[in-house]
């Protein structure tokens, strides 16, 4: 079945730059050139939240894995962490010296990687909200940076026409992919962690194997590709292009499956939900659209199975070595699922509890951080008052 338009959100006052689903698909975050972050609720009766705090265009947004925080990056050179609730309180990170184009949480929710026009990629701790280190070998703006699913690697895409692969622990650049004929707008890891896909102004999408560092697939379009997102099964890729279309590529067959027309003007961003049954897109027409996937019923069972079996206690996603060979997922004949056994049920319950605890931690971190900010303000005010008092005393004595 063809993908179909499910919801349509209007409220931004300028081009939409970024979209992301929360884990439970109940909320969708979007960033826009209008300097705001919007949180849309998938239930029609709950109204959207508009978060104001950035002083300039918001270039990127992402939900934390638990869904209890939203990170955003802006042209005002800051990164903000928001609690996606009515209050919309946020704290700001400052370390970049130019526009922040990309924000991405590690899969354990502990680290954040950001990319900027200051030509650096920076890594932060989420809970202490501390800047850790910079990766600085790009010689032009960095448009996008992503952690690998296991958190060991970072990939970055730049206007210097390269895609760089970094080792997070040693902070070294392991490899540079230089096959792009233009700026590289977007890059992401395949869910297995074995390959990456990059989109560029040379109208192409390229898929590389990061173990052998070789080009696996090359899709030539006829317009600049602004954004891409892997389906959680790893079998499909959706792209957003300047010709206003969204395209769905079948990675197994290596061909274009669907071209979707919805936006008027360039489609700027696109993202699958964490289960893959929905995807969202944004455009310079100020609109956010949510689409029903519809074409992946068989894969969805796979995704849910791997997600259930892969909820390790430490939250790490194991790589699907058996099913993955150079980024191509081999269809297995479906065995009958004899119902979930008690161990699986316990594991799922444990995973849910852990996720809840992580979420509570996120909220606590944010609260403490906001309180610290207020305390600093109060201390500053107190200092001012004392200084003024001193001045008054001195002037009276003189």
Task: Walk me through what this model shows.
By secondary structure, the protein is of the alpha+beta class. It has two domains: 4-293, YVTN repeat-like/Quinoprotein amine dehydrogenase (Methylamine Dehydrogenase, Chain H, 7 Propeller); 360-397. It is built from two helices and 30 strands. The protein has helices spanning 297-309, 342-397, and strands at residues 4-10, 16-21, 27-32, 36-41, 49-52, 58-63, 70-74, 78-82, 90-94, 100-105, 111-116, 121-125, 130-135, 142-147, 153-158, 163-167, 172-177, 184-189, 195-200, 204-209, 214-220, 225-230, 236-241, 245-250, 255-261, 267-272, 278-283, 287-292, 324-325, 328-329. The strands form eight sheets. A four-stranded antiparallel beta sheet has the order 1-28-27-26, with no helix packed on it. The protein has a four-stranded antiparallel beta sheet with strand order 2-3-4-5, with no helix packed on it. Strands 6-7-8-9 form a four-stranded antiparallel beta sheet. It is globular and about 85 Å long. The termini are far apart. The model is unreliable at 309-340 (pLDDT under 50).
What is the strand and helix layout of this fold?
Layout: E1 4-10, E2 16-21, E3 27-32, E4 36-41, E5 49-52, E6 58-63, E7 70-74, E8 78-82, E9 90-94, E10 100-105, E11 111-116, E12 121-125, E13 130-135, E14 142-147, E15 153-158, E16 163-167, E17 172-177, E18 184-189, E19 195-200, E20 204-209, E21 214-220, E22 225-230, E23 236-241, E24 245-250, E25 255-261, E26 267-272, E27 278-283, E28 287-292, H1 297-309, E29 324-325, E30 328-329, H2 342-397
């Amino acid at each position: 079945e063809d993908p179909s338009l499910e919801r349509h959100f209007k409220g931004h006052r300028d081009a939409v730059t970024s979209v992301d689903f929360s884990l439970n698909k109940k909320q969708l975050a979007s960033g826009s050139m209008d300097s705001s972050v919007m949180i849309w609720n998938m239930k029609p009766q709950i109204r959207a939240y508009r978060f104001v705090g950035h002083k300039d265009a918001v270039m990127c947004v992402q939900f934390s894995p638990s869904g209890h925080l939203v990170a955003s990056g802006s042209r005002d050179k800051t990164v903000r962490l928001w609690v996606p609730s009515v209050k919309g309180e946020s704290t700001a990170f400052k370390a970049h010296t130019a526009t922040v184009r990309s924000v991405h949480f590690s899969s354990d929710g502990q680290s954040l990687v950001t990319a900027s026009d200051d030509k650096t990629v920076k890594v932060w701790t989420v809970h202490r909200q501390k800047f850790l280190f910079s990766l600085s070998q790009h010689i032009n703006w960095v448009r996008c940076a992503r952690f690998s699913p296991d958190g060991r690697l970072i990939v970055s895409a730049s206007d210097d026409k390269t895609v760089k692969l970094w080792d997070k622990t040693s902070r070294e650049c392991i490899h540079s992919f230089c096959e792009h004929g233009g700026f590289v707008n977007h890059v992401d890891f395949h869910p297995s962690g074995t390959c990456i896909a990059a989109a560029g102004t040379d109208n192409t999408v390229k898929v590389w194997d990061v173990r052998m560092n070789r080009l696996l697939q090359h899709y030539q379009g006829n317009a600049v590709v602004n954004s891409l997102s892997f389906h959680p099964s790893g079998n499909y890729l959706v792209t957003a292009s300047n010709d206003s279309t969204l395209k769905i590529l079948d990675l197994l067959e290596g061909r274009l499956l669907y071209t979707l027309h919805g936006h008027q003007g360039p489609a700027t961003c696109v993202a699958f939900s964490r289960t893959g049954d929905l995807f969202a897109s944004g455009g310079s027409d100020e609109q956010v659209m949510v689409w029903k996937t519809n074409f992946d019923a068989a894969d969805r069972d796979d995704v849910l199975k791997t997600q259930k079996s892969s909820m390790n206690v430490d939250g790490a996603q194991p790589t699907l070595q058996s099913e993955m060979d150079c980024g191509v997922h081999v269809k297995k004949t479906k065995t009958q699922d004899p119902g979930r056994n008690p161990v699986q049920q316990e594991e799922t319950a444990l995973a849910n509890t852990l996720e809840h605890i992580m979420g509570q931690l996120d909220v606590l971190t944010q609260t403490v951080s906001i309180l610290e900010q207020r305390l600093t303000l109060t201390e500053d005010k107190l200092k001012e008052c004392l200084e003024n008092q001193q001045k008054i005393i001195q002037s009276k004595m003189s």
